[in-house]
Amino acid sequence: MRIAMIGSGYVGLVSGACFAQFGHDVVCVDKEAAKIERLRKGEIPIYEPGLDRLVSDNARSGRLTFSTHLPDAVGNADAVFIAVGTPTRRGDGHADLSYVYAAAAEIAQAITGYTVIVTKSTVPVGTGREVARIIRESRPAAEFDVASNPEFLREGAAIEDFMKPDRVVIGVESQRARDVMAAVYRPLNLIQTPMVFTNIETAEVTKYAGNAFLATKITFINEIADLCEKVGADVHDVARGIGLDGRIGRKFLHPGPGFGGSCFPKDTLALAYTAREANAPQTIVEQVIEVNNGRKKRMARKVIDFCGGSVAGLTIGVLGLTFKPNTDDMRDAPSLDIVPALQAAGARIVAFDPEGMEEAGRLLKDVTFTKTAYEAATGADVMVVITEWHEFRGLDPRRIKDLMRQPRIVDLRNIFDPGEMRALGFTYEGVGRPAPRS
User: What b/e string do you get for 58-87 counting C-beta neighbours within 10 Å, with b at 16 or more?
Assistant: First the structure.
């Protein structure tokens, strides 16, 4: 198959490289000439484990190429995937679809024969119909179908998610389009991956419903963690106790400072907005948004209370800034609420993140960045764990204690064992875990 991927950001680049790995000929298109030039040189503009190797292997084979010229890529394609950004629109929380519709207008002028135009971007229900209207209005005689194929990629595990997905959701309404999409995903059919074929609206809603449900699970266990702290229960045991119920499942029951990233915050907002427009308000989702936003802000207060009610003049070492490990993505990261609040309370912040410091440096002011986690601990009055990078679990607590001015840790991801840390002489506090009995 010949595939054009419009947009070479996170979703477009990962999807394009994976489709090339399937054996298809893929052209990734982007208007940003500097980005395309970097990709042609083998430089990957985002951090995603294994992506650099996947891109270089398929570029070397000739199956994956990069271009700024949309007409050439689209004119030869069997399927054109729209994978441009859909950020939250200022003022109302709705997804900004201007990039999607602009891409549709350009695609309309470029298609030369039967083509399936696929929305890969996360878009509200009704977007596929509008894409079809834009193309049909511009080219009444054009031969095409529109499909919806939402992505379900976890940052940090995107390649495995694409190559071994739980399911593939495809919204199509003609047999011809279904046949094209089945051919695109033929390698997954061969390993019996469930293919969920629906109409376009169902596929669009499925993406938002999936993310909203996961965001709800995270918010639920965070509120249970608050209860556990008050009554002396351990949230990890609670999560295990309920997660072993097959109806509930163990995933996404990990307490922390609140969810962030490129998907959950904007997708829950967009779903809530779309639902209100359709006169079917999603009150649970709206409450999830409110609770999560409040939680991220409260985490700074948790640190301040831990320090006796004031952090003025204290040096706080921060471990982890990105919204989750194995990514350099800072979008809606809890650190963007926590760090400025601690600074406003008079603290000096020294921070380390394995991959996110370059982006964090553009978003967080007056932060001292270090080369290692141990440097961030040096001279600190308290350490705060915000992101659970795997390498932090392997740190030597004794060395950290020797480096710190005061051996105090607020562990917002519960990566350390409370009993062990207290036995080593740390004053320690996690999330949803009982304080030691006096």
Answer: bbeeebbbbbbebbebbbbbbbbbbbbbbe
- Residue 437, pLDDT score: 63
Name every residue whose Cβ is closer than 8 Å to that of residue 396 and which is 6 or more positions away in sequence: none
Contact yes or no for 255/76 (Cβ under 8 A): no
Q: What is the pTM of this model?
A: 0.91
Active-site option among 18, 28, 228, 263: 263
DSSP structure class, residue 88: B
Asked if 3 contacts 26 with a C-beta cutoff of 8 angstroms, the reply is yes
Judge contact between 335 and 256, C-beta under 8 A. Answer: no
Q: What is the pLDDT of residue 223?
A: 98
354 — alpha (psi -120 to 50), left (phi > 0) or beta? alpha
28 is catalytic: no
- List residues bridging with 28 in a β-sheet: 5, 66
Closest alpha carbon to 347 in 366, 374, 330: 366
For 348, how many CA atoms within 13 A lie in the half-sphere containing its CB? 11
> Half-sphere exposure of 419 toward its Cβ, with a 13 Å CA cutoff?
2
- 3-state secondary structure at position 423: helix
269 vs 262 pLDDT, higher one: 269
- DSSP conformation letters of 14-28: HHHHHHHHTT-EEEE
Chain position carrying tokens 């070492």: 317
Please compute the mean of the pLDDT values over residues 220-232 and round it to a whole number. 97
**Is a pLDDT exceeding 90 seen at residue 95?**
no
